[in-house]
Amino acid sequence: MTEQFRKEIVQRITRNLLDIQTLRLLTAEPMWGYKIKKQIEATTGVKLRHGALYPLLNALEQKGFLKSQKQQQGGRTRKIYTITEKGMEYIDAYNSILKEQISKQNIK
């Protein structure tokens, strides 16, 4: 696989599965929006607009996949996002389905 193919596929996955990528990041540690944005950009090379990220975070919170809490840090109030048990179950379901799909591809 060439580096160009790898980069293109990673960017495509990130754009199409931004909710999964975001939840996966939050399994490692709670984060605020800007840190999530920078982590995704650093690991995937995809430039993420605030106008795409914050509505997604709100939607994930409404679904119960994450929760937020305002915290004071360095004189600033930040909204810190944490994945919930339901969010972990969603990630587990995604991983399980992905493994099934990959194993079906290997059978052919």
Question: How would you characterize this protein structure?
Answer:
The protein has 5 helices and 3 strands, in the order ααβααββα. It is of the alpha+beta class. The chain has a 3-stranded antiparallel sheet. Strand 2 and strand 3 (76-83) form a beta hairpin. Helix 1 packs across helix 2 (18-28) and helix 2 crosses helix 5.
Major sheet size, sense and barrel closure: 3 strands, antiparallel
CATH level 3 topology = Arc Repressor Mutant, subunit A
CATH homology superfamily:
Winged helix-like DNA-binding domain superfamily/Winged helix DNA-binding domain
Q: Quick one: overall form?
A: globular
Distance between the termini: 21 Å
* Count of distinct structural domains: 1
> What structural class should be given to the helix and strand makeup?
alpha+beta
Radius of gyration from CA coordinates: 16 Å
Give me the side-by-side strand order of the main sheet: 1-3-2
CATH architecture: Orthogonal Bundle
| Tally of contiguous helical segments | 5
For this structure, what is the CATH class? Mainly Alpha
Low-confidence stretches: none
Number of strands: 3
Percentage of β-strand residues: 15-25%
Mean pLDDT: 90
What is the element string, with H for helices and E for strands?
HHEHHEEH
Q: Helicity range of the residues?
A: 55-70%
